[in-house]
Sequence to fold (283 residues):
Amino acid sequence: MIGLNDFMIVSVVLFCIGLFIIVSKKNAIQILIGIELMLNAAILNLVAFGKYDRINNGGQMFALFAIVLAAATTAVALAIILNVYRQYKTIDPDKINQLKD
Amino acid sequence: MNLVQIMFYLMAFITLGSALVVAMGKNLVRSIFMFFVTLFGLAGLYVLALADFVAVTQIVIYVGGILVLILFAFMLSGKESLAIAQQHTTPYISLKNLPAFLLAALFLVVMLNVVFNADVNNLPWVKAAIATKNVVPVNGTINNIGVSLMTRYLLPFEVISILLMIALVGAAHLSRKEGAKA
Fold:
């Protein structure tokens, strides 16, 4: 059988790839994808540990809640990105540098 | 090496490989579609962790919802972002990305160290779960998930439904046209 270690290693590598994307990319949508990758790495850990809780299903439950939370976050973030694009005509986070109009 | 292990390594390879393509690729559209592949690989990993309901939810919500949203946002944000994304014809690991690469690599080293030192397979509660047969069975049903969702986890379930509605209203409000009188 597959041990917990293997799942955790996959999750760690995925988390670091997400971190790299967030720090290096110059596009708000790609940064959002990086955040989603990091969230998915966390969810993978929840699911892997949830295997050892048959009665309460704690891990799988909170994985479901985390997926729904990620969906809500993405909807709001994309609305914000569209607004920022309408205002600045760019979605490069480095170029968005003023709060007023 | 049995079939489950082979499937695990295949799924892990697909997931991490497509995530690396997302990280290295210069084309925004290609990276969005490789993210799609990453999500499918993760769903396969969830199935191998005996959480088939979570895997199906992952496919329905992420692939059906979030990915379509991302594609919409990408298309609505115009040709400029596409042009900017395709301008860079630098090699894969350029000097500009070196700080990000160093940060991610050092973080990877630290986290791998933590994982190997944690020895998660011998945690007391995991051993207790194995001893008391509290492990999810291979041919288990999702019956138990539904029951505990409606009993033990009823409060978080309701709270998250309210939060989802707030997010829906907020997103609709944010993306409204500025000049339109509502």
About this structure: Chain B touches chain A through 86 residues (CB under 8 Å). Residues 15 and 38 of chain B are 5 Å apart (CA to CA).
